Amino acid sequence: MNLRGTLPTLILEALEHQPDHGYSIAQRIKERSKGVLDFKEGTLYPTLHKLEQEQLVESYEEIEKGRTRRYYRITRTGRTALSKGRAEWRKLSSAVSGILKEA
Amino acid sequence: MTLDQWLLIATRGLSQESVERVRAEIQQHCEAASESGNYSVAALGDPKVANRAYRKVLLTEMEAKLLSAMGGNTSLSRKPEPHGKILAGILMAEAAFVSTIFILKNPPIAFFVVPLFAIPLLARLLPINTPRRGRIYRWVRWSAMLAGAALAALFGVKISQGSFLGVFMPMLIFERVYSSIRRKLPVSQWPRRLYS
Known about the structure:
The structure holds two protein chains of two kinds. Chain A has helices spanning 7-14, 22-32, 44-53, 76-102, and strands spanning 20-21, 57-64, 67-74. Chain A is α+β, with helices and mostly antiparallel strands. Helices cover 68% and strands 0% of the residues of chain B.
């Protein structure tokens, strides 16, 4: 399913409770959507960079099992953006559902 | 396709710093995928699509060179060399001289020439080093230049298509590149030139 426009909100949602690294973020989105939202993992990082530039997430490096890994965590501005994203999605989803029920 | 081939296409045209960051994050991603037994280059998707997405958020080679020439904060950065400043001074003096001749010969052209040269010169003196002030300055500069061109045309000065393309087009191109760098770089790393 096409994720265009919703990936930033899904990433913020995935980071809401704990910081995580790119691969794990991608897997959690896929798992939580039960495989419906399947996206190419190469597009995840440009979106993460964009979120970082907008100061919605911040990144830091950690050594794990002798390997450097970049983790991302949501910022306060990011939490506000997430709430806004959720509200917008609910509004859009209920509008589309209303139309589809009518049809 | 191998991971190296994927990275080569995905990082095409990006600055050295950006290439290193992309390589590191994708390699870390693939290591994590291997650990969970899910490694596949195909899962990364089309590298050309990734390249287009990366170009929108990371500095390109051309932007990094421009930033470096401005004395910006990249791995390529260097302080503007003194002879560069002298050359810029000579060019500015030359432009001011040519403008004065033009204005004396054809006063209405001052409407066009004065905003074109005087406002960018003013930028060096004005305290525009905050994103908001920079935005206001750019808005004023473009408005003054376009209004100047309109007034000059109103007074019968013919601004040929060639001079329009020769003056406004390069400025528009630079404006677009500067705006792209502003979007990609944290404000703390902006060289002064980027505000104007």
